[in-house]
What we know:
By secondary structure, the chain is mainly alpha-helical. It has helices spanning 18-28, 34-42, 46-57, and strands spanning 7-8, 14-15.
Amino acid sequence: MKALSGRRCQSGAYDWSDEEKVRIVEESLKGFRQGSATARRYGLSRSLLTTWRRQYRSGLLSASVSTGFVPLSLSPPAAASCDMT
């Protein structure tokens, strides 16, 4: 049996990172009837895993999600040339 790797919150629930969720979802999609077995292996409810799978399929859950800052550089607009002949 695998150990739970999510962080435990004050409420007693686990806080799973998006990377962990994606790994668990991909594992659950590998074979026939793997959802229930995977949920049990990680101590998840089947309904939570189903929610994660739905988010994964719709693109709302991905391992490359970053919550950091992105550098931004603004420059003045290029001068438009008016050529009226």
